[in-house]
Amino acid sequence: MARFTVNSERFDPYHNFKFKIKWDGQYVAGLSKCSALKKTTEVTTWYEANDQSVPHKIPGKTTYDPITLSAGVTHDGTFENWANKVNNFQGEADMSLRSFRKDITLEVCNLQGKTVLVYNVFRCWVSEYTALPELDAAGNAVMIQVLKLENEGWERDASVTEPTES
Question: Which of 18, 60, 79, 80 is a Cys-bridge partner for 109, taking CB atoms 3.0 to 4.6 Å apart?
Answer without folding.
Answer: 18
